[in-house]
Amino acid sequence: RLSSRRRRHREPAAEGCPAGDGGSMCCQQVSVLYFARSAELAGLRSETLSVPRQITALQLWEEIVKVHPRLAVIRDQVVFAVRQEYVLLGDQLLVLQPGDEVAIIPPISGG
Amino acid sequence: MDESEDVPKDFIKLKSEKLSVDEVSELVISPCCGAVSLFIGEFNISELDLWVCCCSSSLPSVVPITEASVIIAVSSPHRAESLEAVMYCINTLKASVPIWKKEIYEDEYSWKENKECFWANSEK
């Protein structure tokens, strides 16, 4: 269930990232990194995606799954790492800076 | 040995070549520390995927059967502290460090999951 985004009265009610807006609807380019099983499902190790600057972790996951639908099967088994901190796929609001790295972290098995 | 022997130092090294217990032990030996505690983790044929700090690069390597995958060494003046520190290091590594192990069999493979990992599925 997506939380509804606040809309300014001048903003078009469209999905995606409107250009020229300095507010929370503005998009950022972030690097998404895929590891282990998520790299196999996505078919790549990393890419740059354009996502809203303020977005919940769950919304970010859903944006990524739009690009790579095969990732949906691991949704209950992954967390994000954002700026090297683990984040559950929930309602936590992420404020993303240009060039931030977001990594998809399947269950770890080191040691 | 350098002059700053009394200053505690941390060494963290990742490599794709074979690990050496001697080399790791020598890193922590110090005249002030009478005890050196070691942990060696070994496993089956595997591929490793890991994430180092901000690098997106991985260090894929195939680790043969019974070769060490991790060595932890800690020195301390008396044994209790270093033994406890080694246990803390391996437990924390297993619970939080972004390293993934894929065990490869003849016709299939399987990504392993540490039970210490809080976001792993508990049902297996």
Can you identify the CATH class of one domain in chain B?
Answer: Alpha Beta
Note the run of SSEs of chain A as H and E: EHEEHEEEE
Kindly state the percentage of residues in helix of chain A: 10-25%
Q: What is the fold-level CATH name, i.e. the topology of one domain in chain B?
A: Aldehyde Oxidoreductase, domain 3
Overall geometric form of chain B: elongated
Count the E strands of chain B. Answer: 6
**Named CATH architecture of chain A:** Roll
The total of helices of chain A stands at 2
Q: Assign the structural class of chain B, choosing from mainly alpha, mainly beta, alpha/beta, alpha+beta, or little secondary structure.
A: alpha+beta
**CATH homology-level superfamily of chain A:** Beta-grasp domain
User: Nearest-angstrom radius of gyration of chain B?
Assistant: 16 Å
Q: Distance between the terminal alpha carbons of chain B, to the nearest Å?
A: 49 Å
| Separation, N- and C-terminal Cα atoms of chain A | 37 Å
Largest interface: A-B, 25 and 28 residues
Overall tally of structural domains of chain A: 1
InterPro entries (chain A): Beta-grasp_dom_sf, MOCS2A, MOCS2A_euk, Mopterin_synth/thiamin_S_b, ThiS/MoaD-like
Protein name (chain A): MOC2A synthase
Pfam families (chain A): ThiS (PF02597)
Keywords (chain A): Cytoplasm, Molybdenum cofactor biosynthesis, Nucleotide-binding, Phosphoprotein
How would you characterize the overall build of this protein?
The complex is a heterodimer of chains A (about 110) and B (about 120). With about 110 residues, chain A is of the alpha+beta class. Chain A has a single domain, classed as Ubiquitin-like (UB roll). Helix content of chain A is about 15%, strand content about 30%. Chain B has a domain of about 80 residues: Molybdopterin biosynthesis MoaE subunit (Aldehyde Oxidoreductase, domain 3, Alpha-Beta Complex). Chain B has about 120 residues and is α+β, with helices and mostly antiparallel strands. The chains are: A alpha+beta (about 110), B alpha+beta (about 120). Chains A and B meet through helix 1 and strand 7 of A and helix 2 and strand 5 of B. Chain A: This is MOC2A synthase.
